[in-house]
Amino acid sequence: EKWKNGILLVYDLGGGTFDVSVIKVTDGCCEVLAVGGDDHLGGEDFDNILVKYAVSEFQRKQKHDVSNNARALCRLKAACEDAKRYLSKSTFASIEVEELFDGDDLHCKITQARFNELCKDLIERTLDPVKKVLKDAKLQKSDINYVLLVGGSTRIPLIQKTLSEFFDNKNLNFDINPDEAVANGAAILAAHLSKHFDTSIQNIRLLDVIPRSLGWESYNGPDDKIGFFRVAFPRNTKFPCETKQFACTRFDNQKEAEFNIYEGEDRLVQNNKLLGRFSLTHITPAPARVTEIEVTSVIDENGIFTVTAMDKQNGSTNSLAILQDKGRLTENELIKM
What we know:
Radius of gyration: 25 Å
Protein name: Heat shock protein 70
Distance between the termini: 28 Å
Oligomer: single chain
Organism: Panagrolaimus sp. ES5
Helix content: 25-40%
CATH topology of the largest domain: Nucleotidyltransferase, domain 5
Number of domains: 2
Strand content: 25-35%
Largest sheet: 5 strands, mixed
């Protein structure tokens, strides 16, 4: 009820990734305006900062370097995770591991101020995706009504302070437990899909966007060794959607063409993620660049991405469908549940 109308920014700092979403809520309709993030930044990075600090302290006090000792690092990481959680509610924390290496114990303390100093660059780094999604959504900071924190690491006081200052001292929203937010959302979505729950859940509408650009590999000519990424749908495109593009053969009398489907943002396909491939066969023989191939790309309401290639000359067709999530349940499986 509290978020019945307004624009919400979700700051999701998970264990291994960082995601940001801007969502417009209007009377039960949730429209995703933009998404972004950093796949190489997460709560583990804050744990690793504490591990590095503890390794340094152990070497200083006990003269042992355990930076390459897998067993010692595993035990140390568990202790540092506990210390990180404790620092979210206290001004200092102890990191203690008995017989960490060669019979010597680790006993060290770290203050919240020192932890903040070590983590400052990581926290500042999270603001770059926040700024980008605001730009993609064509919004100003002042347009955001609520900032929702997701993920246990968002309890770190400096993260909350940095976000609050970035949004001009706007109060952050703590109505949802950051450790339980993803589970709550999954439960609501499951209830929505099951069609056996309260009508208020059934009436929720979600208008989503794609998080990364989707397209296929293209070549400028027969001598190209590296393929280029031809974008069918730029990132943050709302779906369902459809587009048509055209390609042509690279070689004389070419009878078959392979289509490699990618997602990513780089101009070169080798730097993007391969999603799948298929071949169009029985192409009309002709000189290079004469036979025209129509490429139709579609994303349906379930997020399934389908690419179809057709020889405009003889009608030969083939296609590939890529699910948004390979672990997704089928309609029949949902009904059985």
